[in-house]
Structures are given as C-alpha cells and as structure tokens.
Amino acid sequence: MTPPIQSRLLRRVAAAGFAGAVALSLTACAESDRDDSGAQGSEAKVGGTMTFGAAGAPEVFDPFYATDGETFRVTRQIFDGLLTYKPGTAETAPALAKSWESSEDGLTWTFKLATGVKFHDGAEFNADAVCANFQRMFDQKGAGQSESVTTYWIDNLGPGFADGAKPALYKSCSATDAETAVLTINRATSKMPSILGLPAFSMQSPKAMDEFKANDVQAAGDSFTYPAYALEHPTGTGPFKFVKYDRANGTIELERFDDYFDSANKAKLDKLIFKIIPDETARKQALKSGTIDGYDFPAAADWEGLKNDGFNVQVRPAFNIFYVGITQSNNEKLRDLKVRQAIMTAINRDQLVKSQLPEGAKVATQFIPDTVDGYNTSLQAVPFDTAKAKTMLAEAGASDLTLNFYWPSEVTRPYMPNPRDIFGAISADLEAAGIKLNVITKPWNGGYLDDVDEGRADLFLLGWTGDYNTADNFIGTFFGNPSNRFKTDAAPWGQELADRLKEADGEPDADARNKLYEEINADIIEKYLPAIPISHSPPAIVVSNKIQGLVPSPLTSEDFNTVSKN
Amino acid sequence: MAVLSLLLFAWLRSLPGGPVSALLGERATEEARRNLRAQLGMDQPIVVQYLKFVGRALSGDFGTSTGVQTGDSAVDIFVQRFPATIELAVIALAIAVAIGIPLGYLAARRRDSILDNISVVSSLIGVAVPVFFLAYLLKYVFAENLGWLPDSGRQEGGIEATRITGFFVLDGLLTREWDAALSAFTHLILPAVALATIPFAVIFRITRAAVLDVLNEDYVRTARAKGLTAPVIRGRHVLRNAMLPVVTTIGLQTGGLLAGAILTEKVFAYPGLGQALALSFEKRDFPVLQLLILTAAMVYVLVNLAVDVSYAVIDPRVRTR
Q: Cβ–Cβ of A223/B65 closer than 8 Å?
C-alpha cells in the first residue's frame, strides 16, 4: 500500500519545513567575522586594487626559505633588503642602507642605514635588526641547511653555516651604532654587494620571527614543514603589508603600509591581490575579462594579439641565457674541441632566434648577457655553415657521430618559450651536418632534470635567468664547480676553468675583475666550449591599460609600489 | 585500500623524476640532489619508506606539500579543497539531473518529435565535445565578451568572507554575507555548466531509453487498462521503474565528475581537488598526490555503495531479497 497523495504531500512539506528550520538555526549560530564599524567601500579609495595573476602558489612567504619567482613576486612587495636594484635595471641601488663602502681587501662592508624605519609590526629597524637577520640566516640548523630550503644562502653567502661543517662566505655582522652595520666576509667576491639586493636576504622583523618561530623548519618524511611565520606572518618594512593568504580561494591579499619609511616611494595602490591561475590560457582569459589586471610571462605567441586587444605588453631587457649543453663524461668524441666547435657551426642560431624566439631576442656570443659587467664586446658569433661543420667533423674523425639529444616536455622557461619547436630546429641543423641523433624527451620534473644532472644526455637544452648583475651568477654558477651538469671534471680543462672563475670572482678591483671575466668569456667559447650559447630571450609582462607606472625589470622583479590603477 | 596504497606508493616512486628536481630546478647540482634525497629519506629502500609513510598516515599525517601549496599539510589542502569540488560537483550534478531526467522523459514520451530529435543531438554533442573546449568557449562568451559571469576562481579576490564550512555559498548564507555568497555562486555557474555537460548527456540518454522500455511494459498497459489516471501511471509506474538504471548512471557519473573536475578546474582556475590533482602530478608532489588518489578511490567505493542502497529505496524487490 502506498500512502495517499495528501499524506505524502504533507510529509514533503514537513521535510522542507524542517530543512528550513535547520538552516535558520545554523544562521543564528554563524557569526560573520566582518568588522561592522567600517562599512565596505567607505575607505578612501586612492589607488584602487590591482589583481595580478600568479602562475602558482608561493612556496612560503619567508623569502629566506624560498627559491621561486611566484614567492619573490609577493615578498618583494612586503620586504626591503639592505640594497635593491634600480628599477628597470640590474644595477645595485640603496634601499634600507642609504650608502655603503667596502674595505680595500673587499672583506669588510659598512652600511649606513636609513633612519625612522619601522617594520609592519611596529618594531624598529636598526643595525641590531640587520645583524639579527644575518645571524638568523647563519644559525640555520637541520632542515634549514637543506639545498632546497636555503638555496640562496648556500649559493651566495654560504655554503656553510654557523656550525662550521662547511666554510661560509659570511663571517660576522656587528652594529657599530644604531645606524651603522658592518658585515665581514671570509674572502673577496664579485657578488658583494649585489647579492644583498636578493629577496632571500630581505630584512625581516626580528620580533615577528621570534614570536612565530621563524626558524622552525623541519624535514618530515618526504617533505618539509614550515613555521607559522613563513606561512602566515611575513613581516617586513616594505611598501605593502601582508593581509592574508586565502588558500581556499587561491588569493593573496596585501595592503598599503602607510608608515613606509621612504615617503616618496609609498605604494599608490590601496590593495594588491595575487590570484593564482595555474593555466596560461586561463590567465589570458582572466586578463581579457578583467578579472585580473596583469600577469607575468605571457607566451610570446600571444604578444601580438594582446597588444591588438589594447593590453600593455612590456618586454623586459633579456637577462638570461639559453644554451645547448654538452656532457663531457659520456661520449669520448665530445671531449674533442673540434667536434664541439663543429656542433656550434652546424646550428643556425640566427634563424632560430628569428623564427622561434620573441622579438628582441638576440643570438648569444657568450654565456652572459651584454648588460653584465665582464661582457666581451669583441666576441663574434661563430657563423652558421653546414659544409664547414661536416668538414670539421671529418677532420676530427667523427663523421659517424651519434649523440643522445635530450629535450624537456611539460615546461616553458623564459629563455625557452617552446622547447619542442626549438629542439626541432636545432636537431634538423645537426642532422643536416651528418650527426645522428637519439632523441629522448622527458617531462621537466619527470626525469629530464634528473637525467641531465646525472650526465645521461650527450646534448641537452637548458638555460638560466640571472639573479643579479655579476658574471659569476652566470658562468660561475655553470662552471665554477667542475662537478657540474656539463661534467667538466671529465675534461682536462675543467679544473682550470673553475680556478680562473674563482680567481676572477675574488678580485676586489672592479676593472681588473671585469678584464679577467672578458678573457674567460672569450676562452669559454674559443678554448673550452663546454656548451653552446644560443640566445638571450626577453621575457614580457602584460598589464591592462588601466595600470600605470609599472617599470619592467630585467631581473623580472617588479616593484608594485610605483603602480596605480585608474 | 592498503594494497592500493602500497601499489600507488611504489608506482609513484618508480616514475622518473620526482620532488627533488621539482624543488631544485635549474639550480640542481649532483651533490645538492644527493643531499636532498637523503634529507627526504628517498635514498632508503622503498619498503622502509612505505612503512614510514603508513606509520605517519595512520596518525593522520600524510606529509607536507612540496609543490601544490608548499609547506601546507596534504590533509589541510584536502580539507580546503574538498568543499570546493563538492560544491561544484553538486551543482553540476543538480543541473545534469534537473535537465537530463525531465528532458529524457519528455523525449521518450514524444519519441521522434522535434523535441526528441533536438535533445538527442544536443546530448550527443554534450558527450562528444571535450570539456576543456566547452569550458574555454563558455568563458569566451560569458566572461570575456558579455562580461556577465566571472571566469576564474571561487570568489572575488579581496572580498571579506568568513569561512565556516568551506562551502563558500553556504558560508555566505549562514553569515548573511550576501555579497560573498553571491560572488561564490556566480563563480560556480560557468564551471558547473561545463562540468554538467557529460553527466547531463548520459543521464538524458539513459532516462530516455529506460522510459521507452518501461512504456512498452505489460504493467503499464495493465495500469492504463485499470483506468489509473495518467499522472499516477507516469509517476508511479513509468518513472519509478525507469529510475533504476538512471540512478546507477548518476552514481557512476558522480565518480566521473572528479575526472571532469580536473579539466574544468584547470580551465576555470578553480581551487578544488581536480586542480590539486593535476598540479601535484605535474610538480611530483607525492604527499598530496597520494592522499588525493587514495581518497578518490574511497569516494568511488562509497558512491557505489550509496547507489546500491538507493536501489532498495526505489525498488522494493531489492529490499525483500
């Protein structure tokens, strides 16, 4: 028996009523966290809100523990360093330090600090705070010494820490008076003082770091855990302060810091929001529909279309290098300079740059861009000549050369916008010169970097975007340690090249140092050729036409305090 | 589940690459890799790694993200994103059911009519068009050109919204933050429509076929002969009997929604589980990946269980057996 229709109707009404009652009672319990005193929208809107599309979630908000661009784009707005880079250039410029000088031997660096500077939590910035920061970095223990956690320290002021297990560049910090901090280092290096503008070495509030256990990073199982400071409480002196990271909504919110010490450079925007949109096409659509006001690294293929739609595509000066890597340890033939030169001669770099890379890209004659000190202006790109390459291979007894050539999938890099097409062009050139290729492709994180670093590739595609303006940041990173991904330790000249790079880096006199680098740059091409420089390719940033005052940076490190929206 | 977790664990670690290259990128040196592998315990035998994983997992610790949201625990990421995907899936399914079943029923009753033909063709398109294409198309029309609906995310950035349950629409209603609820709801429309197309098409087609079958059954003819009113015949004899295969289908489609959500969430930058799954694979974020795959498997089992239980409600014969 089924119940009569009326009773079923009744039952439904009762059920609906019950649901409604539950909803109502819940409503009564749930409190809004909103502050009722200031009704929304009543605040003075001076500069408005800019929403910037981010390609991924930031790693952590403590820049000292970060390595990726998504993190630094956010922390750069929250923090200042002792130094910075002049907007639009890679030149070192004053920030929290008004001026600096070094001793003759390059080992002692004295910084005069800006006065009246406050951290976002109200704590005072002074020389003691500077030294507390450096001491904190130096005192890292356990997981804090991991290559993936404190990468910038290890690469620049390290590699060692206070425990002395490894030597460190950093020696000590002392506060002479409230406005004077003195840093000492263990050997002279071209990196100083430029590295002090790196986001990783930003000045953070010692009070907040203490309160939120900033150093409590742990290796736990197959990952790292980070302290509350790095996840929720980044506290700097910068033009914007951290409001919140709404993880469930994928947005990071900053607001203007009204007590910013440099009143001329106070942020114009009221709010700065980063919205995480991992898919590139989705970022483009979000810009077009006005959800975001800009995003970084638009694909070169989209530049024209975006410009035609009235967007402001700002092309930065190229501060990167794209190269074809060669491994010294596998194929005996590749240890012959003539073979490597033949490979370079076989690649039509002009054509590659014209057909595969965005406007403004240049053929690389050496491994550093021309804005870096130590660039050798007299070096000319070896001209493309298939016939000559064949002859050279024959002379070297390598006419039957067969090589493993790796290229990465599932990735684009600012220096390598389209690995597949670039690989296609280069491999066609090499095959035309009679080189047989075993083509191997793997996802970037899915084996490509592993295989390359473990020396399984004979030839591979890779590159680098500079962190700051020194030759050492490029060629020192590549070849400064003979145990590198080119396996130059398997070549008779690997150690020599490393020693020369070390010598140049340690030369305190800038002119003498630049001369050394110029010679090394020439010899890398003419004498060693551990890899083949291909191109410098300019990355772009795109904003809507409502956004004004954005200064594109070659370091891809824009400060948003100059930006306004109308 | 235990077997699955072991297989999953071993499979992920047998894949080339891994979190080490994702973490170090271009900066990696051989030494740095070795150190990092040791630090993360990845140099130990796989069995040891697995046992440690199980030990931690049993106490609720599935590790910390190494790529999707570095530093956040995998469980937290799941808890944040689960409501997002449920919200999306429920609305998508509601759309699919609310349109698919009535349309299927009507199409069957007016077989070969214009309505029938149009809806059969549109359901074919619904199945055939790739979700991401439709998603981009919807965005192009409704967000980019018309500007009616937002194109990405769950809620307007910078809106002050109180979070209680993690279901943004519900939270907005509960706290009477109407603008927050509205913003969350409008953000759901396009992705839900995109996600609904396949389940809609399938549900429509199954309903239509089932109703056609039932309409030809003897008991329907008998019911008519008994002189029962048309609404009673339709409601109690036709629809109810036709619903069995439809419910099975809905259950299966619910499982399939997660697969659809991977693409939909990618295109709409919707921070749900599908997006996390895709990102965790791309970045070799093992802790997040493991947790998501294991829970997806569990949800699949549970949904199928729910379908079996619902048979009993719809079909009394199942109950008595």
A: yes
Contact of B176 with chain A, judged by CB distance below 8 Å, is answered with yes
- The Cβ of residue A527 has, within 10 Å, a number of other Cβ atoms equal to 12
Coil, strand or helix at A326: strand
User: Does A256 reach chain B within 8 Å, measured CB to CB?
Assistant: no
> What span, in angstroms and rounded, lies between the C-alpha atoms of B154 and B184?
6
Distance CA A436, CA B101 (A): 60
More reliable by pLDDT, B45 or A121 = A121
* pLDDT tens column, B230-278: 888 887 788 888 888 888 888 878 877 877 888 899 899 999 999 999 9
DSSP-based three-state secondary structure for B167: coil
Q: Is the dihedral of CA A243, A244, A245, A251 positive or negative?
A: negative
C-alpha R_g of chain A: 27
Q: How far apart are CA A184 and CA A194, in angstroms?
A: 15
Distances, alpha carbon A367 to alpha carbons A524, B89, B299, in Å = 9, 51, 53
Distance (Å, rounded) from C-alpha A481 to C-alpha A431? Answer: 32
Question: Does B171 reach chain A within 8 Å, measured CB to CB?
Answer: yes
Q: Which amino acid is at A53?
A: G
* Residue (of A123, A47, A109, A97) closest to A262 by Cα position: A97
CA of A159: which chain B residue's CA is closest? Answer: B32
CA distance A184 to chain B (A): 26
8 Å CB contact of A445 and B166: no
pTM: 0.87
A227–chain B nearest CA distance, Å: 9
Residue type, A50: M
What's phi and psi for A320, nearest 5 deg? -145, 175
Taking CB atoms and an 8 Å limit, are B174 and A248 in contact across chains? no
Residue A559: what residue type? Answer: D
| Partner-chain residue, chosen from A26, A221, A288, that has the shortest CB–CB distance to B144 | A288
For B135-158, what is the mean pLDDT? 88
Q: Which of B155, B175, B282 sits opposite A249 (nearest CB)?
A: B155
pLDDT tens per residue across span A160-210: 999 999 999 999 999 999 999 999 999 999 999 999 999 999 999 999 999
pLDDT digits (tens, 9 = 90+) for A15-35: 554 555 455 445 555 677 776
Nearest CA in chain B to A442: B16
Distance CA B243, CA B207 (A): 7
Q: Of all helices (H) and strands (E), which one includes residue A502?
A: helix A494-505
Chain B closest CA to A122's CA: distance in Å?
A: 24
Amino acid identity of B244?
L
Which of B27, B41, B68 is closest, CB to CB, to A221? Answer: B41
Alpha-carbon distance of A465 to B130, in angstroms, equals 37
